[in-house]
Write a structure and sequence with these properties.
11 helices, globular, single chain
Length: about 325
Amino acid sequence: MKIVVLDGYGMNPGDLSWDELKSLGEVVVYDRTDSNDIIARAADADAVLVNKVVLDEKTLKSLPKLKYVGVLATGYNVVDVAAAAECGVTVTNIPAYSTDSVVQMTFAHILNITNRVAHYARLNREGRWSSNEDFCYWDTPLPELSGLTLGIVGLGNIGMKVANIARNFGMEVYADTSKNSASLPEGIQKTTFEGLLGVCDILTLHCPLTDKTCELVNAETIARMRHGAIIINTGRGPLVNEADVAEALKSGQLSAYGADVMCQEPPRKDNPLLSCSNAFITPHVAWATFDARQRLMRIAVDNVRAFIDGTPKNVVS
């Protein structure tokens, strides 16, 4: 097989090896591919691997030799799966490879916001502690997580692990989930999204991006939240209306927003969240620990091998 990786740099900037993939066929790896170059680069490919490169209906129908698309991520919205099926192209994804890493980032945001780690580290670099009259100082609220209420939207692998860790912190946990309440572990209370809004001190988003969940968090829903609530988004940027979140941060309705994702990536320089002192934005790196990327590479290669062997797995179309 000829295998073309159209945007390999995001997953492997040089600290992983493509050798196992190369053992399965002729492999060409591009760090990045502009939309205008997709067809030329993939014209002779039997298999294409993509992360953020978009394969729409027009593109797929322009690649008659293509038999397989491997998405190097869990979300596969970059591929028109209906068009792929029509063209006889198998599409696979990489499920559950980054659960631990994303959960870790979720709590990194929660703990940074509540304990103001970055704030105090910055002040101390500027000499604040060295010139302080007392052995310690603080100029922000320092709440304990124990006793706070965490609202979770989506209780899949990531949401469930977040819930379990939150319970170990002593938090009250409510979840908007399709799971039956009788099947939930003790200490996780099922409710609706509307139910979450009125009770949670911290709302964390772990649901897929769909027509129903797009801009789930907006001016109207934020207004129904507790004054000074915190929102964490390590799911997808468009789960929130960013302009509405920025306004709520400025007014104090929200005390903080921690996010690893944005509606446009990279974001525009004039994105209102980037100028909010109580918005804490990381550059979509929750998934990118070395361990998670190693796992992603291994599963990606296994997916290609399984397809070659005639027993495809992790198929989405």
